[in-house]
Structures are given as C-alpha cells and as structure tokens.
Design a protein that fits this description.
The chain is built from five helices and seven strands; from the N terminus they run αββααβββαββα. The chain is rod-shaped, with a radius of gyration of 53 Å. A five-stranded mixed sheet has the order 3-6-7-4-5. Strands 1-2 form a two-stranded antiparallel ribbon. The protein starts with a helix and ends in a 7-residue tail after the last helix. It folds into three domains: 62 residues; 37 residues, no CATH class; 88 residues, no CATH class. A hairpin with a 4-residue loop joins strand 6 and strand 7. The longest helix is centred in the N-terminal third of the chain and has 60 residues. It is an alpha+beta fold.
Length: 208
C-alpha cells in the first residue's frame, strides 16, 4: 500500500472517529441539559407552591374566617351579586362594594315624670306662703315615723308630698322644716312631734 493510500485511510479514520465523538458528546450534553431543565422546573414548582402556602397563611391572618351564615355577598356596580374575592383582589380594586347606610331608628324620648322634674324641695321659713296662689298646708311628723295632716289623716307617699324634707330638720329650725311642691302649687309646713301617732290618734275625732 502506498503512502498516499495510507494517508487517506488515516484521515478517514480520524474523520469517522471525530464524528462519533461529536455525536456522543452531543447526546450526552442534551441529556444533561434536559436533566438540568427538569431539575430547575421541579425546584421552581416547589418554590411556587411554598410561596402560595405562605400567601394563604398571610390571608388568614389579615382576614379571619367568618361563619358562612354571616357572610354577605358583594354588590357590583351593575347591580349583580357576586361572592367576595380574596384580599389581594380587593386591594387592587377589582370589586366595588356599595354598603347601604343604616340610619338608626330614632327612639322616642321618654316622657319625664312630673315628680322627677319638679320634686318637692326645702325652702326657708321666710319663703313659706310668699307665692300667691300656693296653698299652705301644715303637717305633723311623729316619733314613730308617721306623717299626718291637721286632721290626723296619714300621708302614705311621704316622698311624693314633701320629698326629702324630713331629713332637713335643724337646718333652719330645730322642730320644723318647710318645703314647696311646684306641680301641686303647695307650701308645706312640717312640724316635729316627739309623741307617737298612736297616742295622739286617741284624742282625734273619730270621723277624721
């Protein structure tokens, strides 16, 4: 075999060997590339799921869960009813919610009682009988806690007639106190008697 043929065969061998090597390297590189891409996709998917889970946890902290029976639908601008979106959608202004204003019912004022507005009040002895048209009435307060008029008729509702006047003995005079009731247009003179009503009642007329 001549040197020329030997050279040609050698070159062909090199070409064939080089082509085989290139094909092998290409296949190996493609496989590794596919593996790297798959690994990257899997890593990205795992990270994406983790981020979604973190977002759900944040949403639960921002907006606590409500009972389904208490949830109210969202009213859109076109009048349709749609369920509420998540917090992110509301923050972006995806929905427009119109909340009707609730006007509290105006309660009717209670009619005040006459005695709570103008209860009997203590006056000085000089003020007793100074107003024209006011009736002057004399009452007696006995040692056993009975309040009676001049005829011995017992006053049942003491507070309504004289208020707290019985607590003011001694402020102006030791044995008497004076009070006025504007609703009844009366001035009351309350005299203190150290006797018991039961003892005094014996001497009163039977038809009092």
């Amino acid at each position: 075999m001549s040197k020329f043929k030997t050279g040609v065969m050698f070159l062909l061998g090199l070409a064939i060997g080089g082509a085989g090597t290139w094909y092998y390297l290409k296949s190996t590189y493609e496989q590794r590339s596919e593996q790297d891409i798959s690994s990257a996709k899997e890593a990205f998917h795992t990270r994406e799921m983790k981020l979604l889970a973190e977002i759900e946890e944040l949403k639960k902290k921002v907006e606590p869960e409500k009972d389904e029976t208490e949830s109210t639908p969202t009213v859109l601008a076109n009048g349709k009813v749609q369920d509420k979106g998540d917090v992110v959608e509301y923050a972006r202004g995806k929905y427009t919610q119109y909340t009707p204003s609730v006007i509290p019912k105006r309660s009717e004022p209670e009619e005040p009682k006459a005695d709570s507005i103008e209860a009997p009040y203590v006056i000085s002895p000089d003020e007793f009988g100074e107003i024209d048209g006011y009736t002057q009435i004399s009452l007696t307060y006995y040692a056993d806690g009975i309040l009676a008029d001049e005829n011995g008729v017992i006053i049942d509702d003491i507070e309504e007639i004289v208020g707290d006047a019985l607590e003011h003995f001694g402020e102006f005079e030791d044995d008497s106190v004076f009070c006025r009731s504007d609703p009844k247009r009366c001035d009351y003179e309350v005299l203190q008697d150290l006797r018991r009503y039961a003892d005094v009642a014996k001497n009163l007329p039977p038809n009092r």
